[in-house]
Design brief:
The complex is a heterodimer of chains A (110) and B (112). Chain A is mainly beta. In chain A, 0% of the residues lie in helices and 56% in strands. Chain A is built from no helices and eleven strands. In chain A, the strands form two sheets. In chain A, strands 2, 4, 5, 9, 10 and 11 form a six-stranded mixed sheet that branches. In chain A, strand 6 and strand 7 (61-66) form a beta hairpin. The radius of gyration of chain A is 13 Å and the shape is globular. Chain B has 112 residues and is mostly beta strands. In chain B, strand 8 and strand 9 (73-78) form a beta hairpin. Classes of the chains: A mainly beta (110), B mainly beta (112). The A-B interface holds A 1-2, 30-31, 33, 35, 40-45, 48, 88, 90, 92, 96-103 and B 4, 33, 35, 40, 42-43, 45, 48, 58-59, 88, 90, 92, 97-106, 108.
């Protein structure tokens, strides 16, 4: 069962621009996490935001969470070619299982 | 840093073979997970384990089993491989069921 849905499915920007990805989910959550996956590799954890938090920063990453709208956004500022990857949101609900969305594929052109 | 190691990056197996995918983590995490990743379907949870000798079914356990005899090792077993089990398999571990998870590099399995 898919809990999170990312939007857009694909995003192409120029180096230096900001990239924004959105995630919507269906049920109440414990926390929401964002992961990055470089082509053909495993996922790397980026940031975790708890249900009682509204915003969190980590370097060039900014994550917001709106539990009333059941949505989150990931902003990457001043993007670099190395940011080219797929980005997934994942939610933990009462089951304790991490459920992933389909992901957003980001291409950053040099 | 936590390291999760999957024994093979690429595997090719024949239909009907019994296949073992091994995963080892080095940070004493109690929680370990197996996902498969397919285009258009995203990541789907196969099995997970909260402790040694414990296992729980995920969303798509059919055709799979797991073994967790030691805390650091979580094995996924395809009892009789079929072509629809061709996929990328990802192992993960976590100190807590609520994450964050550390993933291995993945095993791309092809069943012919």
């Amino acid at each position: 069962s898919q809990q999170g849905e990312e939007d857009p499915q694909a995003l192409s920007i120029q180096e230096g621009e900001n990239a924004t990805m959105n995630c919507s989910y269906k049920t109440s959550i414990n926390n929401l996490q964002w992961y990055r996956q470089n082509s053909g590799r495993g996922l790397v954890h980026l940031i975790l935001i708890r249900s009682n938090e509204r915003e969190k920063h980590s370097g060039r990453l900014r994550v917001t969470l709106d539990t009333s709208k059941k949505s989150s956004s990931l902003l990457i500022t001043a993007s670099r070619a190395a940011d080219t990857a797929s980005y997934f949101c994942a939610t933990i609900a009462g089951t304790g299982k991490l459920i992933f969305g389909q992901g957003t594929t980001l291409q950053v052109k040099p | 840093d936590v390291k999760v190691t999957q024994s093979s990056r690429y595997l090719v197996k024949r239909t009907g073979e019994k296949v073992f995918l091994e995963c080892v983590q080095d940070m004493d995490h109690e929680n370990m997970f197996w996902y498969r990743q397919d285009p258009g379907l995203g990541l789907r949870l196969i099995y997970f384990s909260y402790d040694v000798k414990m296992k729980e079914k995920g969303d798509i356990p059919e055709g799979y089993s797991v073994s967790r005899e030691k805390k650091e090792r979580f094995s996924l077993i395809l009892e009789s491989a079929s072509t629809n089990q061709t996929s990328m398999y990802l192992c993960a571990s976590s100190p807590s069921p609520t994450g964050p998870y550390t993933f291995g590099s993945g095993t791309r399995l092809t069943v012919v």
